[in-house]
Amino acid sequence: MAVVTAPTSSEELITIEKTSGELNTITLRIARSNPAEGHETTYSEFKVPVKKWTTVLEAILYVKQNLDHAVAVRYSCRQASCGSCGMKINGKPSLACYTKVSELHSNIITVEPMNNFPIIRDLAVDFKQLISNHKKMKPFIIREDSEVTPESKEFIQTPKDVEKYLQFSYCIKCGLCNAACPTMATDTSFIGPQGLAQAYRYVADNRDKGKEDRLKIVDDAHGIWRCHFAGSCSQVCPKGVDPAMAIQLLRGYLLGFTK
Predict the structure, then answer these.
(1) How does pLDDT run across 148-159, given as a tens digit for each residue?
(2) Which end of the chain is more exposed for a tag (fewer CB within 10 A), N or C?
(3) Nearest to residue 168, comparing CAs of 233, 232, 117?
């Protein structure tokens, strides 16, 4: 068993800090724009001190707190649970709070707003369409006997029942899958991988009785048939939801392969 003792001097403390994480400096390039004011996209560069555990979000907040208060960025939980800080990091849709600077293996890091979303300002984008499409999927359990009575306090499921949809219930609505989707770039009416994956999450839930309603919604020219199965949505999902697989499984219900 290793025994850790507190440093006895400032020199020891400095030595421990150096071995636990060297302080480096990176160049952080932040895309700046304000469509409401007609401003075209420019890039502001900042020198930011980082350690091996510094996240991209922490680097951005260092700039916002110390160098330029006007940087617009959305964030909240800082632990990859709320989905607020989605952006392009060196060209790839990612969560800024989940991406460590050291993992990018570059001294120059460029952060930009996600593709396929209207830009509000700088790194913040508008999620209205994503939330609207999510609501269209009726993301809740539909049952005629949905009112809980003293006789029916819960709907029992087996582990196999839960396994069918559990993976797809991890969606945090960060929008990264929609940002990576090439179809969303060409069809603004496309439901998108996030909405389609959530439709499958409830269709596969044996407690739910709204399967036919949801299948009618996704069985549309701008619905499930617009997906070309590029698979980029699943590659960028930070929670392992795998929207591409959900879409293929959902097609099984529409084609009659799955009941």
Answers:
(1) 666 666 788 999
(2) N
(3) 233
Helix ranges, the chain (H)? 10-20, 56-66, 128-136, 159-163, 176-180, 182-186, 193-203, 211-218, 232-236, 243-254
Residues 219-242 have pLDDT tens digits of 999 999 999 999 999 999 999 999
Same domain, 117 and 220: no
Q: How confident is the model at residue 11 (pLDDT cuts 50, 70, 90)?
A: very low
**Whether residue 104 sits in one domain with residue 165:** no
Mean pLDDT of 176-191: 96
Backbone angles phi, psi at 213, to 5 degrees: -65, -45
Token digits of residue 165: 């949809």
The pTM assigned to this predicted structure is 0.86
User: Which two three-digit tokens encode residue 249?
Assistant: 């499984």
In angstroms, the first-to-last Cα distance of the chain is 56
In angstroms, rounded to a whole number, what is the distance separating the alpha carbons of residues 236 and 92? 8
- CATH (domain of 221): 1.10.1060.10
**Shared domain check, 247 and 139:** yes
